[in-house]
Amino acid sequence: MTETPETITAAVLAIGDEILSGRTRDTNTGYIATFLTNLGIDLKEARTVADDEEAIVEAVNALRSRYTYVFTTGGIGPTHDDITADAMARAFGVGIDHDPRAVAMLKERFPDTELTEGRMRMARIPDGADLIANKLSKAPGFRLGNVHVMAGVPSIMQAMMDEIAPTLRTGVVMLSESIRADAKEGDIAVPLRDVQKAFPEVAIGSYPFSDEKGFNTNVVVRSRDEARLAEAAEAVRVMLAELKR
Amino acid sequence: MTETPETITAAVLAIGDEILSGRTRDTNTGYIATFLTNLGIDLKEARTVADDEEAIVEAVNALRSRYTYVFTTGGIGPTHDDITADAMARAFGVGIDHDPRAVAMLKERFPDTELTEGRMRMARIPDGADLIANKLSKAPGFRLGNVHVMAGVPSIMQAMMDEIAPTLRTGVVMLSESIRADAKEGDIAVPLRDVQKAFPEVAIGSYPFSDEKGFNTNVVVRSRDEARLAEAAEAVRVMLAELKR
Predict the structure, then answer these.
(1) Where are the beta strands (DSSP E) in B65-169?
(2) Angle CA(B73)–CA(B111)–CA(A215) in degrees, nearest 5?
(3) B152 neighbors A185 (Cβ within 8 angstroms)
(4) Do you know which Gene3D superfamilies this protein is assigned to (chains A, B) (predicted)?
């Protein structure tokens, strides 16, 4: 028996009416999913809620108690519909006020005449939070407990993830191999299930797709153990070759 | 006082490890968001969970009790990792078995020799469910209570939404107008908040973006009342024009 390595889990919470109305396509969650996979952190759940304090509070409290890390996107700008910071303070039961460190960051970008009441809203940070630097437009995100609060603009969110990454505990990276079956999913289902039974500790997924030649399937084999991954992938390839004989 | 029209709400539940690993980008949720907005149905929440029965059961039970409709995508194919139908049966506390109507649909497509044990899995339907026709590849989705269970392949999901649409109660369509501010969000935040205060029943959202000219903002005004929408949008335009003088 080898020791089971620690599993590090995460959830993403996207905040914004514009995603739920369909006006804006959420590309942030997919970006974060790939980013975390590359760090060996398992993204277990993603949620999107509206710009609604009650909904944000309830979602973040559900997720932060369940997963190692939570990453939120959206709702930390200067306008009246940016309510994420206040919602986080309420979720954690802490106060919120203009943070001198955040004000100093904004002053790097804006002369006093441009530091409007709206922009000063972006310096409202819940008590006890660490700031997350924003190299693009200065207004910071923040970390409160295990929750990382980031901007919704993709370029800014991505820069913030780069700031956060070195602070995260990381796991053993999940390795994967994708095998194009050149067969319909229904034709490989039973033999694939048997391969899965033979390799219970390897995750074998089956993903149908269609192209100009019709329905086809990608089989994805995933494991943190390189040798077991290779064995299971080979078993899938042998199974597929036998089907075609 | 005009009568408040009925609000019809919805949630989307995307099911699949491949979305959470970042391997597959979820385009279904955005498609459904736009589809529902066009029907006057308010999408209030979206979740993504893994191919994990416990996680699916918990999510669907949380969502179905809260919203008028739930739409799920993914996990109804023929392979061992397709567990959505069984999870739905468990969530509703009903049995599940091969459904003669679903078997008949599969037989339209597959000769008996190709109706493998795997493909027959796609005819497993929870007791009491109505089927959702699949014009593309026959294997049906189903409706159980207020939950609509659809395929994850986008083309099939979209065909299923077309089947479902006529069965849904629809609301008054939310109208919207998008106004490009040609200003930074921080410069319009305070006057925009004042416009929002003047039109409390109209939703005014502010969405920063950046292009080659730098940071900019789209203001989106949303209402189900055409006249109020026009008044609020005009107030935003007047405010923006005054800022530029």
Answers:
(1) 69-73, 96-98, 124-126, 130-132, 141-144, 147-150
(2) 40
(3) no
(4) MoaB/Mog-like domain
- The ipTM assigned to this model is 0.93
Cβ within 8 Å of residue B218, ≥6 positions away: B178, B179, B180, B181, B206, B207, B209
Confidence of residue A1 (pLDDT cuts 50, 70, 90): very low
Average pLDDT over all residues of chain B: 95
* Domains in chain B, CATH or no CATH each: 9-167 (3.40.980.10), 175-244 (3.30.70.600)
Sign of the dihedral through C-alpha B21, B27, B30, B31 = negative
Token digits for B65? 């009790």
Kindly state whether B192 is in contact with chain A, defined as any CB-CB distance less than 8 angstroms. Answer: yes
Residues of B in contact with A29 (CB under 8 A): 26, 48
Tell me if chain B has a CB within 8 Å of the CB of A231: no
DSSP label at residue B36: H
> B185-198 and B226-244 are packed helices; what angle lies between their axes, rounded to 10 degrees?
140
Note which residues in 106-125 of chain B have CB less than 8 A from chain A.
Answer: 110, 114, 116-119, 121-122
pLDDT-based confidence at residue B245 (cuts at 50, 70, 90): confident
Residue B3 has a pLDDT of 52
Q: Give the mean model confidence (pLDDT) for residues B73-94.
A: 97
Predicted confidence at residue B24, as pLDDT, reads 94
φ, ψ at A75 (rounded to 5°): 85, 20
Going from the C-alpha of B102 to that of each of A202, B106, B120, the distances in angstroms are: 32, 6, 9
Tell me what the mean pLDDT of segment B193-222 comes to.
93
Contact check, Cβ <8 Å, B189/A215 = no
The minimal CB distance from B190 to the residues A77, A114, A116 is found for A116
